Amino acid sequence: MNLSDLKNEWIKEFSQPMMIAGPCSAESEAQMLETAKRIKETNAQVPIFRAGIWKPRTKPNGFEGVGVIGLNWLKKVKEEYGFLTATEVANAHHVSAALEADVDILWIGARSTVNPFTVQEIAEALKGTKKIVLVKNPVNPDLALWIGALERLLGQDIQNLGAIHRGFSTYQKTKYRNNPNWQIALDFKSQFPNIPMLIDPSHICGNRTGLADITQEALNVGYQGAIIETHSNPDEAWSDAAQQITPEVLATLISNLKVRNSGLAGFDDEMGRHRTLISDLDFQMIELLSQRMKISEQIGKLKKENDIAIFQPERWKVIAEYAVQKAKETGMSQDFIEKVFKAIHEESIEKQNNIMIDRI
């Protein structure tokens, strides 16, 4: 069986969008039950409660989760409030403990997805399970790794599969904690429309302010749900405090979402996908231009220190020739490319002029 052959009937058991919510990390029984109680009291359509039991951290000596004891708190959440439960697993030991605690949904995190050996270990530990297993995209923008992780799970006869888009790490600082890179996720969806896709706006944004927009954007292009970090007291959270929201804020966010009928795929759906990709590319262009201007400022400082004129005719000649070359290679208008490069060059000169006369 191939991934494209999966029916994935499990998604039909949930209303759309399928919402998963709960704290980034399980911290105490009281915190778990309080968060679950308040989610339930808001009447938000959240059937699944999540919590990180084991927390892989970038650096040592940080909070790395409460461990197995947290699974007992997840069981209490299920017993007292009727939620299905979900947690991340990163090795065979985690899988064994989570299955013993009857956790309903398991997900493989971005740091694990990037390592085929880790995924294979998890897949073999889950062999033949009927549990729902979700796979987050790898930390680096590699579609093959993402698909490969799901194929390894399918190879162990795990058939209730789904994907989580949580964005991709980048060295450059941007407004996102992890850049969405919508193109990669939409390529995945195009290749495997039968595999449910959820958005993880918490890890994409890294803050609370952009959660609603990212979630709505995902629903606009046919995602089936979201996993949103929710905490009874976000500001005091032991991990990722800035990106967690209260149950009440979550309920408002969900009530404002507009779900599109994915069964009516047509002009509007396709237009939505194209617009999302354009927005993503526009964001990347602006970020790159910002980086370019910072380099221009450094060049301006060097020119000032060495009494060198800002405008260098030979350099502009090289830029103009490069524009002509790129126009031919890409099939775009030479006039358009020259206008773009001219605008960039003029802005660069303006930046350097500001440095010359001490405006910066």
Write the layout of secondary structure elements.
Elements: E1 18-22, H1 29-41, E2 48-50, H2 69-81, E3 84-88, H3 92-100, E4 105-108, H4 110-113, H5 116-125, E5 132-136, H6 143-155, E6 161-165, H7 182-191, E7 197-199, H8 201-205, H9 211-220, E8 225-229, H10 247-255, H11 267-305, H12 313-330, H13 334-356
Helix pairs in contact: 1-2, 1-10, 3-5, 5-6, 11-13, 12-13
Give an account of the 3D structure.
The longest helix has 39 residues, at 267-305. This protein folds into two domains: 3-263, TIM Barrel, CATH 3.20.20.70; 268-356, Chorismate Mutase Domain, subunit A (Up-down Bundle), CATH 1.20.59.10. Helix 1 packs parallel to helix 2 and helix 5 (116-125) packs parallel to helix 6 (143-155). Strand 6, helix 7 (182-191) and strand 7 (197-199) form a beta-alpha-beta unit. The chain has helices spanning 29-41, 69-81, 92-100, 110-113, 116-125, 143-155, 182-191, 201-205, 211-220, 247-255, 267-305, 313-330, 334-356; strands at 18-22, 48-50, 84-88, 105-108, 132-136, 161-165, 197-199, 225-229. Strands 1-2-3-4-5-6-7-8 form an eight-stranded parallel β-barrel, surrounded by five helices. It has 360 residues and is an alpha/beta fold. The chain is built from 13 helices and eight strands.
